[in-house]
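Entry 14. Structure prediction run on the chain below.
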Amino acid sequence: MKKKIVDPIKKFGERIYSASKINSPFLLALCIGLLLGAACGNGSSPTLADLPKQKLPITERNFFIGLVPNPAHAPNSSFDDILNAYEEAGKIAEICMIWVAQQGIGQFILLKQNQVITGVRVYGLKPFLTLNFATIKQGPNGLEYVIDAPDGLTPSLADSGFREAWKNEAQNIAQEFRPEYLSLGNEINDYFYLHPEDLDDYLSLVAETYSAIKQVSPDTKVLVVFAYNHLIENNQWGLFQKFNDKIDLIGLTTYPYQKFTTPDLIPDDYYSKLNQYVTKPIAFTEIGWSSSGTNSEKVQASFLTKFLELTKGLNMEMVNWLFLHETSLSGLPAHISNPEVTTIALKKADGSKKEIYDLWVELKGLK
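Output returned:
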């Protein structure tokens, strides 16, 4: 049986190896998000010592769990490291977050070439794809958050050519791969905080694209993802109402360590207040707590238990930890990000388990 599992992956060879180099584009977007919230941390002194061994606060779960199956030994990961990461993800998770170099128009062709979705499914994982409409670029006056349009298209959500191309991209992805989950934008509230004038055009584009996806892949669950930290800080609660009737799920990323020095400082209603605004099931597409800086592995593990306690009353579709392995930053992300983001992982870069790992495996075992 093992040979039947490994051979389809190895058949893709360097294609999957290249596809698995997901960290750079994903970490750039992630680091920008963390950078936007970096100045908002709570000044209280952390309590790191004497934390008890963590126990899950739940005995059953009705949501999926997932992660990014990034390999060990980054940035010098071997092909075997890639295979091992996907195989391990299949054992400890159910959803695989897929990030490739091109996250906007052009992603469809790249996904066909690298066949990473086929590889993910070999290990029984449900693929989660994201089609972004905007990207972060270095402009003449610094970093800019702009519409991601290929050459020949006007970078505007109001432009008919861009809208048609983006909608077709989503429909082609849905028809070819039938992904279980397709997000139409990651941490979109950050973009619309800077460009509120584009929101109405995006809302209509999401509605049109949702219909196009359902025509070819009715079982694909469509969502958009919000950065929960910034949504709270910028009082963007009203955005939820605008999307509740246009998508299947509300997606959220959450990194409370940016705001609170220990998980115990997270207010009891930090997540439960979502029930006042959200009528759709919630997909926590990224959660995490650093284990470096003023934090520790014990604190990181305690966040997972705190999160599960505070979200008991929510209708959750999924909970995804950020990384499988600690990773590294290079290029622009390395210049703008605190390196502790790279430690939001279940395992160290050398492949050894962190304290949170066994807790996560226990969570996987719940039915």
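The radius of gyration is 20 Å.
Filed with the rest of this week's runs.
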